[in-house]
Amino acid sequence: MSDELATTEETVSADGEYKMSVTAKIDEVGPCKKHVTVTVPRADIDHYYSESVSELGGQATVPGFRVGHVPTKLIEKRFRQELSDQVKQRVLMESLELIAEDNDLDPINEPTIDIESLEIPEDGEFTFEFEVEVRPDFKLPEYKGLKLERPAREIADKDVDEYLTRFLGQYGEMEERKGAAEKEDYLELSIKFEHDGKHLSEIAELVVPLRPVLRLHDAEITNFGELMTGVKTGDTRETEVEVSGEADQIEMRGEKVKALFTVKSVKFIQTPEINEELLERIGAESEEELREEVKNILERQLTYEQRQSTRSQVLDKITESADWDLPETLVSKQVENALRREILEMQQAGFSRQDIQARENELRQKAISTTRQALKEHFVLDKIATTENLEVQPSEIDMEIYYMAMQQGESPRRIRARMVKSGMIENLEAQLRERKAVDVILEKAEYTDVKMKPQEENKISAVARSVCSSFSASAAEEEETEEADEE
Fold first, then answer.
1. What is the model's pLDDT at position 228?
2. Over the stretch 187-245, which tens digit does the pLDDT of each residue have?
3. 3-state secondary structure at position 6
4. How far apart are CA 440 and CA 429, in angstroms?
5. Chain-centroid distance, C-alpha 12
6. 356 and 346 Cβ atoms separated by less than 8 Å
7. CA 150 to the chain's CA centroid
8. Beta bridge partners of 173
9. Which residues form a coiled coil (predicted)?
């Protein structure tokens, strides 16, 4: 399908600025992808050439002539290449802006144009082509008055006690386990992976808590707890693991791999007593204040869980009709971006690094399908935000950074600097805008409260490693590295 679209034939706009009269032939060449053929009349090229000669003539320094009095022919001869480059840049920039404006193109990425290979002819019109990914064109579904279930539960003293024990663990000392490994002990391991009897990869050193499941970027060892319970230093174990169907290494997707474990040591954390020294280290005035802060974190996590549940229902309902396809190149580019945004939400809710790592590894194992769905949700929410005239204020970004800094025990300045450096500040703004769109939907929804399932114990140990490669840095780990660099 193609359309021949032309701009107005007028050469001067209403505000007196020069307006080009380019034509554009636009073809659909794939999901959300357009092929555009642009034709620029000679009159437009001559206009920008004359402008460039005039501007250069007013600035150029040529021996024997005063600035501003160099003959036009000499300017054209001496600065031929500079003029050619300047005219090409102006023609491309102005024509692209005009085409996007007049033809209602809404690009997602920069158009693919090999600028270096383009040459404007000395005579006649100038034609160039490019492809560009654009936002999908769709009709918004009905998003007001949705019927939703809202999970609810009370935060009990028992919940505070359990979280406080886990929280204090990060201030405890590691001690050697003299007997067999127990649940939640820390195992220092080395792991070798073999495929069809050949060495595939190796993790030379790894320390993980003993839990039922070990989750890597591209696989899960679901019998890890059963396999490793009761091991002692020097023991070896082996098992089979299946590589994720969406692993980075395409040829390994779905393949069975043998994992061989060697236990280097077994340790446990001696939880410290709550005393003045520990409270000062944590930054709390008293044990009561510490417990109150823990309860605040749990309430924030509960809000996150409620929000995720209702958000999931909302997104399922408003994307039911989103049957349009997305280009694979766009999905691939956005995998890491979508991952970072999920991590950002969990950081804002005060989840631990281990919880965040577990979620990251889960997402990486089904990265393509997860990202494709996340992109569809983004486009629908973005359109709702535009329809509702929703914008994010700088003060709202400041407040989110403040909460994150408080939960992570850092200064807001350092959190902001790290987010700017990693590019996550843009993710935060987009995330807040989408959150506002979801809030509009939630404000107009009808709710039925349902009892939330009790929180399960943490069954997953997650590590920033892969079966198919010896090392892979996680988004969470990159943040730790950046943090260490700043210190």
1. 95
2. 999 999 999 999 999 999 999 999 999 999 899 999 999 999 999 999 999 999 999 88
3. strand
4. 17
5. 43
6. yes
7. 27
8. 270
9. none
Q: Say how far apart CA 405 and CA 347 lie, in whole Å.
A: 10
Could you give the CA distance from residue 361 to residue 219 in angstroms, rounded to a whole number? 8
Token pair, residue 150, equals 């809202």
Stretch 470-486: mean pLDDT: 46
Burial label for 450, CB within 10 Å (0-12, 13-18, 19+), is exposed
Going 350 to 353 to 357 to 358, the CA torsion angle's sign is negative
Instruction: Give CA–CA dist 344/363, Å, rounded.
Output: 14
129 pLDDT higher than 60 = yes
- Burial of residue 425 (CB within 10 Å: 0-12, 13-18, 19+) is middle
Picking from 352, 356, 298, 296, the residue whose alpha carbon sits closest to that of residue 170 is: 352
Q: pTM for the complete prediction? A: 0.53
Name 95's Cβ contacts closer than 8 Å, sequence gap at least 6.
20, 22, 38, 40, 44
Which DSSP state fits 116? Answer: G
- In order, the DSSP letters of 232-287 are -TT-EEEEEEEBPTT-SSGGGTT-EEEEEEEEEEEEEEEPPP--HHHHHHHT-SSH
List, in order, residues 6 or more apart from 124 with CB less than 8 Å away: 42
The position carrying tokens 């450096």 is: 421
| Cα of 6 vs its chain's centroid, Å | 38
Cα 256 from Cα 30, distance rounded (Å)? 35
- Contact (Cβ atoms closer than 8 angstroms) between residue 433 and residue 391: yes
| C-alpha span between 294 and 261 (Å, rounded) | 37
Q: How far apart are CA 444 and CA 451, in angstroms?
A: 22
CA dist 247 and 220 (Å) reads 12
pLDDT confidence band for 389 (50 / 70 / 90): very high
- 479 pLDDT tier (thresholds 50, 70, 90): very low
Instruction: Name every residue whose Cβ is closer than 8 Å to that of residue 37 and which is 6 or more positions away in sequence.
Output: 24, 25, 26, 27, 127, 128, 129
At 256-306, the pLDDT tens digits run 999 999 999 999 998 888 998 888 888 888 999 999 988 988 888 888 888
Radius of gyration of the chain (CA): 30
